[in-house]
Each structure stands twice: as structure tokens, then as C-alpha cells.
Amino acid sequence: xxxxxxxxxxxxxxxxxxxxxxxxxxxxxxxxxxxxxxxxxxxxxxxxxxxxxxxxxxxxxxxxxxxxxxxxxxxxxxxxxxxxxxxxxxxxxxxxxxxxxxxxxxxxxxxxxxxxxxxxxxxxxxxxxxxxxxxxxxxxxxxxxxxxxxxxxxxxxxxxxxxxxxxxxxxxxxxxxxxxxxxxxxxxxxxxxxxxxxxxxxxxxxxxxxxxxxxxxxxxxxxxxxxxxxxxxxxxxxxxxxxxxxxxxxxxxxxxxxxxxxxxxxxxxxxxxxxxxxxxxxxxxxxxxxxxxxxxx
Length: 297
Ligand code: ADP
Ligand code: ZN
Description:
Layout lengths: L2 E6 L3 E7 L5 E8 L3 H14 L4 E6 L14 E2 L10 E2 H9 L3 E5 H12 L7 E7 L3 E7 L44 H5 L1 H8 L10 H22 L3 E5 L8 H13 L6 H4 L1 H4 E3 L6 H14 L1
Parallel strand pairs: 1-4, 4-7, 8-10, 10-11
Antiparallel strand pairs: 1-2, 2-3, 5-6, 8-9
Helix pairs in contact: 1-2, 3-10, 6-7
Bound molecules: adenosine-5'-diphosphate (ADP) and zinc ion.
Adenosine-5'-diphosphate binds next to helix 5.
């Protein structure tokens, strides 16, 4: 089966072709400009490759509700050229194939849950800490779930990067979120790290105070997610998580903040509860292939 995958991001569009087993045959990356410039390039790519269905994991906010009038649209994104753009409609019309559609982080959560480090778990989360912060939530409800019904949407989709935070006592940075200033994303996404410390995040590797503060915020969010979602494992990805020293720090703060309140076998071993992404960072594309497959079947 030839399936198309599109990881639609604010800076680049990764287009790929693969199959239902998660095998990726080929891929290209196209810079995200305006729909007028970028859509024809992507359509041409997929048209030539004769795919049976397309799965899109998209930056948001988006409308993933098939019953809604604006299903398949990118909605209130700060990327103005893409605001209210009907990305699913555009691909459907041009390619005449089924198109699956979800958030980029739900696609990654699905990729990990189908092929990766959360396979076989009935409830898991994927958190990305990059240019923004977002989480995908996978909940297997068993036979009752409809196709694609294992990803949490509710009225829209989770916006887990915009939760309120208790500030680190030493943090005087005002926060970068245009809506909330010092929400989780406003304090801890890549651009916030860079504005607070005045340097590219990748160049701050040898500044322990940077990663202590970052871990404090990430751990706090993970505790909140644990209390509400009760996942069996949380996967962390995104550019900021390339700082591998974050993992032990996050686990340390997590244990401290949890304070022994929730007692499960999962939380006895934080090394396997809070884990890095697997699949060589292909979890997003592999999840999109799976979205395409779900749309077909
Ligand atoms: P996006 O979120 O746009 O899809 P990424 O997940 O790669 O892309 O996130 C980009 C952000 O990650 C940048 O803001 C940058 O600050 C941060 N970043 C990228 N590489 C590193 C690194 N090696 N160490 C720390 N931060 C990084
Ligand atoms: Zn916010």
C-alpha cells in the first residue's frame, strides 16, 4: 500500500511516502511559505507518487472534527497566511483521495503508540518542546473506539502547552506567549529560553542553571498531565529535548513535585515513565502514515 504523509510545520513541510507498516520510502522537506506558494509544490509531489490516501499532522490550532463545517481547516494560527486555510479540502480536491487530519503532536503520539516506545500501552502522551509546546494524547478505549478515535480531541484538541505555571523562584523573565505571557509555552519553549538567556538554546548546553529551570517547568507540566490524564508513559520530543541532560533533571523535579502522592508501578521507575522519542525522530511521519491508513479503513 502506498500512503502519503505530511508533517505540516510552521517552518517546514515534510512530505513523505510510505506504507501501513510505517516503512518510509522517500521524503522531501519544503519551506513553509504561503499556501499559494507551498500547496502547489506539495500537491505536485504527492500527485506524481500515486498514493492511496494522505495523512496530515498539522501545526495548529486546527479543526479536526469531521462533523464541523470548518473540518480540515487550520484555524486561529499566528501564521497569518495559513489562518482559516482549508488544507484538507485543498488536498482532497487536487488528489481525489481520502485525507486523514490531526494535530502534529497527536500524529506523533499515534506514531509512538503504533510503532514506538508507547506501543501496547492503553494511555500515553507525546509532548514536544520546540518552537512551541504541545501534547498529543493517545487513549485506547478498546473495541468501542471508532477509527482514529484513539487520539483525544474533545471539543477541539488539547492545547497542553498553554497551561498556567507556578514560576521558578529565580525566574524574572516575563514570558513570551502572545496570549498568556507566562504559560508553560511562554516560559519554556525554545524561543523563551533564547530570549531569557540571550543566546541560542543549543549554545547554552554548558549553563546548568538554564536546564535546571527548564526541567522545573517541564516536570511541573508532567505532574499536571499525570493528575488529569493518568498516562502510563510520557514521551518527550522537539528540538529542546536534544539537551539530554534534561531527562534526569526532569525526573528529579517530577519525583519531588509528585511528593509520593500517586503510587503506581509506572511511577516506581521514572526512567521508563519519562522517556525520549524513539523511531529515529520519525514518529511524526509514521503517525501521519497511520492517519492515512485509518482514513482508508
Ligand atoms: P519546531 O518546533 O519548529 O517543529 P523543533 O522541534 O526543532 O522545531 O524546535 C525548534 C526549537 O528548538 C528552537 O526554538 C530551538 O531553540 C530549540 N532547539 C533546537 N535544537 C536545539 C538543541 N540542540 N538544544 C536546545 N534547543 C534546541
Ligand atoms: Zn499561552
